[in-house]
Amino acid sequence: MLITPTAIDLTIAAIVFGLACIGTWIVAGVLTRRAVLDQPNHRSSHSVPIPRGGGIAIVGAVTAGWFLAVLLGADPGTVSPIPMLCVVGLAIVSFMDDVRSLPAAPRLLAQAIAVAFGLWAFGGHGAFAAFLPRAIDLALTALCWLWFINLVNFMDGIDGITGTETISVTAGLVVLASAGAASTMLFGPSLALGAAAAGFLVWNWHPARVFIGDVGSVPLGFALGLLLVAHASGDAGDGVALTQALILPLVYVVDASATLARRVARGEKPTEAHREHVYQRAVQAGLRPGAVCLRIAGANVILIALALFLAPWSLWLSLVAGLGVVGGLFLSLRPAPLPCRDPAS
Questions:
Q1: Distance of CA 164 to the CA centre of its chain
Q2: pLDDT value at 55 more than 90
Q3: For the residues 43-49, what does the mean pLDDT come to?
């Protein structure tokens, strides 16, 4: 039986979309006047200064949606103040990083504190509670969550990609909840987060008028991780929900993890800016950012289908199939070889 979101959830999502769209336009103007700009360099995918920090509008819209949910009497389980405070706190620290380039230590400390509070909000258990002792479950969930926050930040390297991935993952959770494969408590926050990303994407689609900045990508990574952990930790113990939570963001997880592993193997600094992700190499080879994002969205649609239909039937087969989808996406993003010319011609 198909389960539909409540009128409150849909109303809040529509309002959040409008606030994010209008708010991004306003924030972009303020950032431009304040000269908070991303200056192009040899690693950039843009050639002119672009205002950086449009994620302020996303965080503001989601925060407004949270307050609205409280006022409209949404399910208390979906309006806990702890995750929202973590999102706002990470946004503040990350905006300082956008403006002043903070060292890695305070940024990681802020993320670790947010993850700790997030796990506390879950009642002291994580995504692997059904399979591992509590201490190992919490430690492993915290490490995965921290990595996910940073990989979302790392993957924000071309116009539209963060908005595309956020919409894809939240849409996947909504589909699972609609099919009865996930808690309906995920409806409200997933719709709101996806709506905020869509409102921002209006201005961030290629050619972007504003960049999200760490102020947006870091809180989004935390919030998406929160929703995925919430789904995984709600499983009764058969591993289906955990597998689904792994499949939905698989494009980001594989690209970021494989790229980091290659860089570490070569002795390069993992935190140093670069242009080695698969999607970045595709753009360097001449593929437009919008085309890359659409191909990622297409792969994500298939991943959602695998999470919904194949994961309940076979956990390992669904993961292998998911990796195959990601591999196919990466092959489609590889530049076509130049035609060989006959030396005698």
A1: 9
A2: yes
A3: 68
One DSSP character per residue, 201-219 reads HHHHSSSPSSB--HHHHHH
**CA–CA distance, 77 with 58 (Å, rounded to integer):** 22
Q: Any idea which residue has 């195959």 for tokens?
A: 324
Place of tokens 């009642």: 123
Please, which residues have CB within 8 angstroms of residue 172's CB and are 6 or more apart in sequence?
244, 248, 300, 303, 304, 307
Radius of gyration of the chain (CA): 20
**Helix or strand run (H / E) with residue 50:** strand 50-51
Do the strands 50-51 and 37-38 form a parallel or antiparallel pair, or are they unpaired?
Answer: antiparallel
Query: CA distances (Å), 131 to each of 134, 138, 168, 183, 224, in order?
Result: 9, 12, 28, 20, 23
Q: Which two tokens stand for residue 134?
A: 């509590």
Q: Among the listed ranges 182-186, 251-255, 274-278, which one has the minimum average pLDDT value?
A: 274-278
Note whether 186 and 177 are within 8 A (CB).
Answer: yes
**Distance between CA 198 and CA 204 in Å, rounded?**
9
CA gap 313, 46 in Å, rounded: 45
**Would you report the helix, strand and coil content of the chain in percent, each value rounded to 5?**
70, 0, 30
Q: How many Å apart are CA 27 and CA 199, to the nearest integer?
A: 13
Domain ranges within the chain, ordered by starting residue? 7-333
Closest CA to 118 of 215, 244, 227, 236: 227
Q: Is the C-alpha dihedral spanning 96, 102, 106, 112 positive or negative?
A: positive
Which two three-digit tokens encode residue 99?
A: 């403006």
Mean pLDDT of the chain, nearest integer: 91
**What sign does the dihedral 217-177-64-114 (CA atoms) show?**
negative
For 185, residues 6+ apart whose C-beta sits below 8 A from its C-beta are 75, 77, 78, 230
Here the tokens at position 189 are 């926050």
